[in-house]
Structure formats: C-alpha cells, structure tokens
Amino acid sequence: QVQLVESGGGSVQPGDSLKLSCVASEAVQRVAWFRQAPGKEREGLASIWASAGRKEYTSSVKGRFTISQDSAKKTVYLQMNNLKPEDTGRYYCAADWGSRTSLRLRDYDYWGQGTQVTVSS
C-alpha cells in the first residue's frame, strides 16, 4: 500500500506562488495532482510519468503550474505561479503504476489526504 503525504498549502493573495510537495512511501511510476473546489468535482491538473519524465497539464493551469519530481526523495512537486481565486481548493496527490500520463481520477489507486490552498485578496 503506497502512502502519499502532501504539504505546502496555505492562504495567499492573487498573483502569489506556492509549491506543493507529495512524498511517497515508495517509488511509483505515475503521479498526478488533483484539485477539488467547494461544491465541484475533483479535477486533474497535472500528471508526470516518472520513467520518461513526460508531463501533462489541464488547460486551466498550463503555463502557470509546473509538475516535477525528485526520484531520490520519492517526491513530486507542483509549482503554482500567478495564483487566481479560482485556484482555491483542496489539492490531492495521486499515484499508481500506469505507463502514461493521465488526468483521470479512476486511473489512480493511491491518494493522499490533501492540502488546502486558498487564494483571496
């Protein structure tokens, strides 16, 4: 059973940056970040396939968010720049052994507890 622990959330103002971290209890093949805003479904934001370093982003965060990995630390990061109020939500890290990037919830077997991000002036 892979365990994932997210950290790095907080309350910031529009235009600010945050860097989220997801630490895994063991090496995994594929990791993604999801966001769940109040009253909305959980949506995939960014995914990375560890073997090839391939990345995928949803359109709303492309150019503002960057997913990266430190394999030695079994950690995946989400650098979030130019944050907007609509980025508010709980951010979850998910992982599994898939062989390509994916932003679909059903593709992931392991989930963290999430970290809250609030963007407000």
Order of secondary-structure elements: EEEEEEEEEEE
The largest pleated sheet is described as: 7 strands, mixed
Strand content: over 45%
The total strand number stands at: 11
Uncertain residue ranges: none
N-C termini distance: 40 Å
Q: On the 0-100 scale, what is the average pLDDT?
A: 96
DSSP helix fraction: under 10%
Describe the structure.
It is a single chain. The protein has 121 residues and is mainly β. The strands form two sheets. Strands 2, 4, 5, 6, 9, 10 and 11 form a seven-stranded mixed sheet that branches. A four-stranded antiparallel sheet has the order 1-3-8-7, with no helix packed on it. A hairpin with a 4-residue loop joins β5 and β6. The mean pLDDT is 96.
Q: What key phrases describe this protein's structure?
A:
single chain; 121 residues; mainly beta; seven-stranded mixed beta sheet; globular
Lay out the secondary structure.
Elements: E1 4-7, E2 10-12, E3 18-24, E4 30-36, E5 43-49, E6 54-57, E7 65-70, E8 75-80, E9 89-96, E10 110-111, E11 115-119
Parallel strand pairs: 2-11
Antiparallel strand pairs: 1-3, 3-8, 4-5, 4-9, 5-6, 7-8, 9-10, 9-11
